[in-house]
Amino acid sequence: MSPKPGNESATLTPMAGRSGRWYSIRLEYDSSRTRSPWWTPILSVVLALLLCAVFIAANGMSPLVVYEKMFRGAFGTSYGFTETMVKAIPLLLCGLGIAVAYRISVWNIGAEGQLTVGAMAATAVTIYFPDLSSFWSITLMLVFGTAAGALWGLMTAVPRTHFGVNELITSLMLNYVALLALDYVVFGPWKDPKGFNFPGSPMFTAAQSLPVLGSTRLHIGLVFGLVAVLIYYLMIRFTRWGYELRLIGANPTAARYAGIHIKKHIIIVMLISGGLAGIAGMAEVSGVTHKLMQGISPGYGYTAIIVAWLAKLNPLGLIVTSILFGGLIVGGYSVQTIGLPSSISEMLQGAILFFLIAGDMIHRFRIRRSA
Amino acid sequence: MDFTTQLLIAAISAGTPLLLATLGGILTERAGIIQLGAEGLMLMGAVTTCIVYIRSGNLILALLAAVAITAVLGMVHAFLTVTLRANQTMSGLAMTLFGSGLSAYVGKSISGIPLPGSLPKLDLEILKPVPVLGELFGRLDMLTWFSLLLVLVLHLLIHHTSWGLHLRAVGDNPATADVMGIRVQLIRYCYVTAGAALIGLAGADMVLAYAPTWNEGLTAGRGWIAVGLVIFARWNPLRALFCAYFFGALDSLGFRIQLLGSAVPSYFLKMIPYVVTILVLMYLGYRNRNKPSGTPESLGTPYIREQRF
Amino acid sequence: MQDPSVEMRGIVKTFGAVTASDQVDFSANAGEIHALLGENGAGKSTVMSMLSGVYRADAGEILIHGKPARIRSPKDAALLGVGMVFQNFRLVQSLTAAENIVLGEKSSFWRGSRWIKRKHEEIEALGERFGLKFPVDRPIWQLSVGEQQRVEIVKTLYRGADIIILDEPTSVLTPGEAEQLFETLQVMKQAGKTVIMTTHKMKEVMASSDRISVMRKGKMIASLMTGETDELELARLMVGREVTISRQERAATAGEPLLIVRDLEVAADHGRKALDALSLTVHEGEIVGVAGVAGNGQKELAEVLTGLRAWRTGEIRFDGSPVKTASVRGAIDSGISHVPENRMKSGLAGRLGSVDNLLFKSYRSGEHSRFGFLKAARNRSWSQELVRRFNVKTPELDTPVQQLSGGNQQKLLFAREVSHRPKLMVAVHPTQGLDVGAAAGVHELLMELRSSGSGVLLISEDLDELLQLSDRILVIYGGSIIGESDHEQADREQIGLMMAGIRSREGSAV
Question: Which of A121, B218, C216, C504 is the most buried (most CB within 10 A)?
Fold first, then answer.
């Protein structure tokens, strides 16, 4: 382990003389440097690419070819770029929700489940109210999807606030519950009778589908995402609520002394976080797949964690990182054509997160010559 | 064989990977470091075992490889959290993501290929005539025996040795341990590494004793359940034994009920372990609301020596 | 004359721009109790921390028993026989007293019941010899503060220390317990140990030490034999000028009763009773001091009054109307301000700048926000004005407050708490960790509040501060007020006895 913290300094020159003075070079830890330089996210992406190149090369492939293929697949063609944007929508919505929660150190990792129940609730509208007008079905689907996601978020928040249960475990367990519930409905009660026994709900009608831009697959969910980012930015920056979140994030004890109800805020934040993921789920079924089926999310909820962290919870950064990761997912699919598994993108994501958290800390160490 | 014996055997079989992973978590967290990478580490342990076992046909080599790889990953976690003092939650999440991605990536080629063998069982002739126990113990494999032995060893280690005293001191109050001449960072490195290796072994046990072949994401959240079990067991190896077997029983109960021809869809039965995890944690939280929970006090906070020299 | 067992020459230590130890020479002999006297922040603890290996000196040399020593870590110090009892104990709460004492021991891997029994006997015998009694087999968190200190002392003795440093040992003790400690120190002295004690209390120094070294602002001022000096000389050396030990004269300003607390019962975190039938009254324009040894309910009292903690039974009336439920916001709105015990832990958000920190309590008011939106520009100029008025030295308004000095942080906190014209201020250890100048500034602010007609409830462990500022002093013990004395008749000794739970001079224990 090369860089050691300051106290275990590597003495280069041993004691000089009897006087008790010594000279050495050591690494010093400075906890006050909380803001890491702007280039750490970029550097961590580069390093993650290098690390994964080793694994690709070990598999007998040329990393350059693979990365080129991924890049072309994601950003090289207009079809690919549209696909990237389509994938960026749920990442942006979920990432935003996660960012709100992480501002006050509520570690929601349940966006995957919240997205899933959002998609299920939206589908429920199409199944139980099949003949609504376009406006009413989309509105109802949006409302139900948001509410279901928010409810799922609430189920994470209440154990934390009232029973002291770590939200990481709860939100993750609920992901599995949501996925099993999804399996149940698509194999059982909601299975399309005309679907040749494939697990999945009946196709949505045009009235139940989100409008798309031109003839692409890019749907209006993008607008939901961008509007949500704008609202997030305004709320955090200019409102009392944003100030309260800032205070809780900086020092929860002091926030309590200032009369802020932290439990209330945890619940609000988890409702928002779950609700945004629920919107993502609704947009996914209504805008992309047009039916409920297994695997509607290729791990958007988990990828969104990195999206939020990489953006340092910053609204503008969120837009950039969600497009980048949308591209990573699409790129992952495109390398399947040369016989590589798409899990390569998941591996890259994990590696990016590793380097990112290391990079956030490493700049706090300084080399000092001590006398 | 009656239903109870069967359930007991199934509970032990499903509970052993949970037990190993929980013990690994206990070691890591006793040293004051949160380990949320259990899921990824288990997957890496499982996939390494499969690849090496299929390629070499040597079980021992496969187990050693699994332990070695996850130990290295454990050191990465230790480097990030102990040396760099990075956010332990995030480092664990990264481990889980990276582990599931990498295991799926390297495991693609062996997905679905059955393993050349399974764990040898220990034949205990003396126990054979004993009614339930004979049947039970005759069916336990080496890793199960190892995990049982480990429970005892870790219990004694933590409570009756100098190492254990140092471990508890480091987890509760690293500053004091440091002043007393205990090497906090070194101890943390050791236990995080050892803990990760045990979690890797849990993954190996999953494929060897529980699921017959490698499949992407085959742990299905068991790593996370183990994270919860560490809390149920209140960082105590003996309690971990009961908690792990209880969850093993829950896990296999769904399957058994289904075999009995229950009308409840299997999806709901499969939810039981996840839902029970949340409910038990809530119950414990409610019951212990006015008590110290037994959590190592420095858990989650990196140790920084007063560096004003 | 014998050779000194400890000799420090020309010790220099700087923290950033502050020189905590400036060419300090110090020596102590075996078989003597040596007091290192100085005000808070004079550098006593820093010098001793270098002797015990916590800090490394920038320059200078240390000789132990006449030989040059290189002390780079607490381990080095322990090997040389130097042991230190820190002000905040270095004990692991979940381990037993005995486990804490043997913690550093590397020998004997296996620790079965026989080994443990042997160690218990060994430790008990050691404690007995020096008059230090405590239960060896109970976890630390179950022991009283006094007992914990005994564990710390036995720990250093067990590890074979013959140079024992005690950092402000009496600050956590009742006067009775302090007496007991001095007896222990005498036994150690007789056993030929070098005992060094840092303190800022002159009375104790006079009563218990053989030799006194005085430090002021990082410099060693003098070293004298205790028999050849007196309190007045020590005070002059400590502060650097003539000081009058008498209290300030003042005009009586007390008016209507502002806060009335009747028979309050409050539970602490783990269900224990923290306040028990506590009653007190604070009038307008009055400073009421609450004296007591830490852990007798002061923390809970402050929390209840500021709305942070609910109470079980009893009655609180503030400003003429009854307080119904515990609510921080309610307390803020009704005009109660709070200077909490640990400013960086609960008073300020270190990562945020001055504006955000000043807004803590007032951001909800119409003056600072409207329709849920903050009035950004207005709040900035308001903060600028406060920073100027309270003379807070900060590079920029947005500089994270963790980068300010302790005194400036406290000024910022007072600026916030005073800015909304409180009717009552609950101040807990407001001068802790501040240097003399900053502490004087805080005292001035409290006196200003008093003369403007506000009430102040001053909770402090510093009896001198209480005697200097308070119109009345209440003594808290075991969660109740067990005694009261007013400004004119306040008597150190009697208050000290009450702090130990003894109600009157006749010595009837509570």
Answer: A121
